[in-house]
Amino acid sequence: MKALKLIVIGTLLFFAASSVQAQISVHLNLGVAPDWGPSGYSDVRYYYLPDVEAYYDIPSSMFIYNNGVTWVHRSSLPSRYRNYDLYNGYKVPMSNYRGSTPYSNFRQNKVQYARGYRGQEQHSIGKRPERGNSNQGNYSKGRSNQKFDRKGNQGNARGNNKEKGNRGRGNDK
User: Please, which residues have CB within 8 angstroms of residue 170's CB and are 6 or more apart in sequence?
Assistant: First the structure.
C-alpha cells in the first residue's frame, strides 16, 4: 500500500512538473550610452566619431583609436582632442563590424564618413553639464563647427588656419 501511494505521488509530480513550462529570460545589458550619445540608438555597441577618427565602446565607456602603432582602448581621447566637443560632434552608430573590433572596417568608415561628415540631424541623449563659471554659454548651439587636420590640430583642416583662436582661454582675445 505504501509503495502504491509513492507511485501515485511520483506520477502526479511527474505530470505536474512536465506541464509547467520553463521560462528562460535572457537580458543583455549593452551598457549605458553617454549623455553626449545620439538619441534613438539604444541597440548599438559602438559609435564612430569621424572628426577624430575614433570609436566609442558603450559597454566599457572607452574610446578606441589608433595611436600610430596599434588600436588602443582609453577612457579619454588623445590630448590633441582635449577641446573636442562630444555633444556637437557627429556620431555614427556602427553596425558593420564583427566581434569586439569595430576598427576592422576603419578604411571603409574613414572614406564613407570623412572628417566633417554630417548625416541626419542628431540630438544628444542628455543635456550638456552646466559649467560652474562665466563660460557657461560658450558652446556652439548647432552642429559642430570644429575641424581638425590629420595631426589633430584644430583649424580649418586645410593647414592654412590664420586665426589661432583663443587657445582655450575663454573669451579673452
Answer: 134, 135, 138
Render the burial of 50-69: b for 16+ CB within 10 Å, e for the rest.
bbbbbbbbbeeeebbbeeee
Alpha carbons within 13 A on the beta-carbon side of 107: 0
Tally of domains in the chain: 1
Highest mean pLDDT among 43-47, 93-97, 147-151 belongs to 43-47
Sign of CA dihedral 150, 153, 154, 159: negative
Structural domain contains residue 98: yes
Is residue 104, in this structure, part of any structural domain at all? Answer: yes
Residue span of the structural domain in which 74 resides: 29-127+143-155
> 71 in a domain, yes or no?
yes
pLDDT tens sequence across 104-160: 999 999 999 988 888 888 888 888 887 754 443 333 333 444 555 555 555 544 444
Give the amino acid at 13.
Answer: L
User: Considering the domain boundaries, does residue 7 fall inside one?
Assistant: no
Residue with cell 573669451: 171
pLDDT at 72 over 90: yes
**How buried is residue 136: exposed, middle or buried, by Cβ count under 10 Å (0-12/13-18/19+)?**
exposed
Q: Cα angle at 152 between 149 and 158, to 5 degrees?
A: 10
Provide the 3-class DSSP secondary structure of residue 28. coil
